[in-house]
Write a structure and sequence with these properties.
This protein has 330 residues and is α/β, with parallel strands linked by helices. It has 13 helices and twelve strands. A seven-stranded parallel beta sheet has the order 8-7-6-9-10-11-12, with helices on both faces. The protein has a five-stranded parallel beta sheet with strand order 2-1-3-4-5.
Amino acid sequence: MKVMLLNPMLHKAGEEYLKSYGIEVECVRVTKKNVPNEILPRLHDVDGLIVRLPAGVNKKLLDAAPKLKVISSSGTGTDHIDIPSATKNGVVVVNNAGVGARPVAEHVVGLMLALGKKIVMSNNALKRNGWDSRETFLQENLGNELSGKTVGIIGFGHIGRDTASILKNGFNTEIIAYDPFLSDEVFQIANAKRCYSIREICEKADYITLHLPYIKETHHIIGKEDFEIMKPTSFFINCSRGNVVDQNALIEAVNSRRIAGAGIDVFPTEPASLAEVEILNERIIATPHIAGLTEETNRKLSVSAAEQVIQVLEGKRPKNILNGEVFSVR
């Protein structure tokens, strides 16, 4: 059997795992979401795909792969995979939900600390202007403590709950959270106060962090009207997907001091252009979609993707199947 990697796996352990089962592995580097036409003929005998951004899977690719049985994302997100078309073609789609939650949560808390304590801003000022820059951080740019603040979490899945745990246990923050798809018990176990609207989170929180998938219903779920009701001292964090936020509205909210600052690990279009990054002022800390990437987690994600591909090829049901109706008719 043959598995094609659209871009190398996050860790060599995943590819080694596939080969240990006698799988032929072919790796193709793709720099855009749409796979180039010249690669499509090479899919004719592929049984499995493991897809890493910026590569994506569309109907055209699926139709070029008549033997394809399973697609795995390299991480947890699947907005780059056309799941309805895969389902129509009888192809199982899996992700690695829960595997990379902790490092993303750590990254979120790191951004909160960096924003509140002006860590990046003071580092840049010191290197640019020397010790005299210290004076501004005793006055107009004086930092804030994270301890005791109210943190609002929108999307209370694995990452949201891990973030809450770190903040509650390490900083004694008050956690308020919104997720309409979870039971009250989930919030109670996490010692979080349940909110019933995004507006309530925006009005009450000192820090707001987003943990949502990108689907049609979450497109620009946070926009201008939401930033307008946030506290002027609040900080906004997005380590989920770029298009769940109206990025222009976020930039305007920071530039106009409507909110105090923001931390982002994702952009509406990735890879983001240099121009998109250069327009961000010093009150916006940006990282290039690396929140979930660590040595430990990259290994786990790669092995998880490989394991699930093998399971489907062996006729077994994988743990994180996203279109179970396909598997049920096999």
